[in-house]
Amino acid sequence: MRDLSGRTAFVTGGNKGIGLGVARGLVGAGMRVCITGRDLESLAASVESLEAAADSPVGDASPVLGEVADVRDPAALEAAVAKTLDRFGAIDVVVANAGVGRFGSVIDLELDAWNEVIDTNLTGVFNTVKATLPALLASSGLLVTIGSLAGANFFAGGSAYNASKFGLAGFSQAIMLDLRERGVRVSTIMPGSVATPFGGREPSPEDAWKLHPDDIAESVLYLARIDERALPSKIEIRPSRPKQR
Ligand SMILES: NC(=O)c1ccc[n+]([C@@H]2O[C@H](COP(=O)([O-])OP(=O)(O)OC[C@H]3O[C@@H](n4cnc5c(N)ncnc54)[C@H](OP(=O)(O)O)[C@@H]3O)[C@@H](O)[C@H]2O)c1
Q: What is the pLDDT of residues 59-78, one digit of tens each?
C-alpha cells in the first residue's frame, strides 16, 4: 500500500456529506486537501474541522484549503485549481463528488430542474476533469468520480437524476480508457444510500441502516493506496442490510 502523506487532493463538494467524509479520510492519511463548494459558511466550518483532524500541518501552512467554486462554472474551477497548485504544488488525487438530486415524475419536471441536475452531476464532472487534467497528467494521478447506483438502476421519479448518473457512468468508463494510456487512473464509485444531507434533509437515527460517508472515504483511500499497476475502474457499494419496510 502506498503512503499518501504529503500528497494533494482536490475534492468538489467537500464541504458536506460524502465529500467532507472523503476529505476527512484523506487528511487523516496525511494528505493536503482543497475542498470546494458554493456555500462559504459551511466551507469555512469544514476547513476548520478538517484542520483539527489533520495530524501534522505542512510547515506553518494549513494542509487544508477551501475554495468557493460552482462546478457549473469552468472559470471558477480553474481558479480553485490554480490556488491549490499555488499552495501545494501538485494535485495527485481528484474526487469529482459535487452533485444534486431533483426527484419527481417527468410530468411535473421543469426544464430548470432538469438543467440543474445535468449541469451539476454530468457537465460539472466534465468541467472538473478539464480543470484538473493538466495537473493529473503531470502527477500521473488518480481521478475518482462519485456516481451512484442510480447510474445502474432506474426508478420512477428519477428521470433527471438517473439520466445524470447513467451518463456519468458512461463518461467515467470512457475517460478511464482515454487516460490510462497517459498514466492517469480513473475510477468511479457508485454508492447506494448514504446518510448525508442530500436533498436538504439532515441524517437522523432512522438512517442508521445506510452507508456512512466514511465508507466512501475508505473506498477512495483504497484506490489511492493500491499499486499503480492495478485499476479497479468501478466500485459499487451498498448498505449490507436494506431498509426494513
Ligand atoms: N447520499 C446518497 O445517498 C448518495 C448516494 C449515491 C451517490 N451520491 C452522490 O454523492 C455526491 C455527494 O452527495 P451527498 O450525499 O454528500 O450530498 P450533500 O450532502 O447534499 O452534498 C452535496 C455536495 O455537493 C456540493 N454541490 C452541489 N452543487 C454544487 C455545485 N453546483 N457546485 C459545487 N458544489 C456543489 C454541495 O456544496 P454546496 O451546497 O456548498 O454547493 C455539497 O458539498 C453526489 O454526487 C450524489 O449524487 C449520494
A: 558 999 999 999 999 999 99
